[in-house]
Amino acid sequence: MRVLLALLCLILLGGARDPILVPEVSQHEIQVRQGFRGADLLLFGAIMTPEGTRAGQDYDIVVVLKGPTQSIVLREKQRIAGIWINAESTEFRSAPTFFAVASSRPIGRIVDDKTAAIYELGLPWLQLSPIGAYDPDEQARFSAGLVDLMQRQGLYKEDPGGVKVSEQVLYQARIALPSNVQTGTYTAETFAITKGRVVASAISRVEVRKQGFERGVADFAEYNGFLYGLLAVLLSIGMGVLAGRLFALV
User: Fold this and answer.
1) Which of 47, 171, 174, 188 is within CB 3.0–4.6 Å of 204 for a Cys-Cys bond?
2) Domain architecture of the chain: domains with CATH
3) 192 vs 244, which has greater pLDDT?
4) How confident is the model at residue 84 (pLDDT cuts 50, 70, 90)?
């Protein structure tokens, strides 16, 4: 009887072992040059058992691609006496410069709101980290405004059917990076989910770098801020003088 119980425990424990994800991306480095029009990232991988065999169970896959974070001040405009002026404002400590979520099904059909909030599986659960004391209703309005602004710029996006899973082993998703993306390190985190529970996750990284003339200008501006500002002012003055002389000759 003890032997049967031991075998049953081993079977149950063996069957309950969580899978592992083996992720990969089509490009680990994206070079931003003059005329850069964006890039398409292919995020793919496999769902395996710890022994390296097929997991053999139905899993949903969610891929979250997040760009470097930055502090953002968001100002609300109001029309007073026919003039639009800045009114209330708020500051977010760590708003991602890019945020995209692709999933095999709509997030609401995969996990509950609590799990989605823990792992930031979608725009409604994005953690923006406001600075200072704030009113919850007011902060919700500003957060929604920031998300809407970034969506219209193509920097925040969701694709509820963007992940394709083949034979419950291979998965792939395509996420487009627009031409106005910020440089820096991007993290692509993949989640395997079953019965509303995240059972595995893995992270890949992508570097977006400026190359050529653009990189030279960016490096010069970063390490020689005073000289860069001085040259910019002199260039503006020179262009103004040149334009004035050209118009005088016409």
Assistant:
1) 188
2) 16-210 (2.60.40.1930), 212-245 (no CATH)
3) 192
4) confident
